[in-house]
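explain this:

___
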Amino acid sequence: MAQKPTAKKSIADDPKVVQAIQNYEIGLRAMQEHKFDKAKTHLLKVAGGPSKELSDRATVHLNTCNQHLEKVTTQFRSPEEHFDYAVSLMNVGDYVQAREHLDKLLKQSPQSDYVTYGLAALDCMTGHVEDSLRNLDAAIRLNAALRFQARNDSDFQNLAEDPRFTELLYPDPGADSSPEHETPEETY
């Protein structure tokens, strides 16, 4: 009597693997929705699961989740440290996060010249010329020394040819003098 060949058991038939795949998919969806806590919970289940390939992939995504969760819980000891963090976000091209941090700082400290200057630079880098000029003007009114800093700041290169930018950085010396400081012209 011939024996019937037994069908090979598929990996998809293993309920543990099926559950790991479901957790992986849920974790990825949560990551795409920026729900990193939820994603982490599901990906942790996959990382310890039966499929090595899926476990390795889940570990990579867990690292991403951890990085995003660390950003959220970052505590700043001072407004200056918070500002430095916002500038670092600008430097890596994360303009949306940088703007969120600078806006938050400006609400906390509306007369802060360096925050207003940072917003001016960010506005220029992101093509918001009018906002950049307005914020730069406000920053210079708060601290005239920023005029000299802006002259050599590469963040303002998009405004280099704009005459309004030039007027902000190189004001007409006679424009600020009042009539009482003027010397009368001598007549001969």
Observations:
- The mean pLDDT is 84.
- The chain is about 65% helix and 0% strand.
- Residues 43 and 164 are 53 Å apart (CA to CA).
- The two ends are 136 Å apart (CA to CA).
